Amino acid sequence: MKKDPYKKLAQYYDRFVEPVNHTLRKIVLKIQPPEKGMQLLEVGCGTGTNLQLFQQNGCIVSGIDLSQAMLEQARNKLGDKADLRLVDAAQMPFDDKHFDVVLAMLTLHEMPGEIRSNVIKEMQRVLKSKGRIVIIDFHPGPLQIPKGWFYKIVILFFEMAAGREHFKNYRHFIAHKGLRPLLETKQVVIEKEKIIGGGNIALYLVARKKLHPESISTG
Fold this sequence. Notes:
By secondary structure, the chain is of the alpha/beta class. It has 7 helices and 8 strands, in the order αβαβαββαβαααβββ. The chain has one domain: Rossmann fold, CATH 3.40.50.150. Helices cover 37% and strands 23% of the residues.
C-alpha cells in the first residue's frame, strides 16, 4: 500500500479543515435528511465527521478510506458501532444493493483519473434500487467575481499543501470538467444539482432511475 499522505496531518485535520467544510455538511443533511435505521456508506470518510452526524440521527453507518491515520481518528469519534475499513473504493467489499445512501464528499478529485469511473460504478453497485448517491466535489466554474476567485485561491492553497500527487489529480479533475461528465451515464440520473462557493463546488443527488430532475443553482 502506498505511503499514507495523512499520517502526520490526521490529528490536526478537524481543527483546520472542519470550519471550511461545516457549511457543506449542513447542505448534505438538507439534501439527504437522516432517517432512523438508514444504511449509509461514505466513500473517503476521513475523520468520520459526516458519519457521526448521521449516526447521531439513528443511521447505521459504514466508511471506507485509504488513510489508516484518518480511520483511527474516525474510530475515536464513532466507536465500535461504525463499520470502518481500510479499503480501495474501486473494489468495495460490500454486497450488491446494500446501502440506502452512498456519500462521497471531496473525494473523487483526489483519485487518479483512470479509476474515478470505476469508483462511481462501485457506488452504484452497492446502492439499493431506490437508494440515493450524494456526491460533492470541486467544480470548474464559471466563477463569480470576486467571491468565486477568493474561494479558488483558498482551494488551491489546500490542494497544493496536500502534496504533488494530490494536486496533480485535482488539476486533472478540473481539466475534465469535474463531476457532471462522470455522472452523466445511462445508469443514473441527476435529481438535484447545487452549485455553491462562487462556482467552485458542485453537489449532486443521484438516483438509479429517472424520476423528475430538479436543478438548483445558487451562488
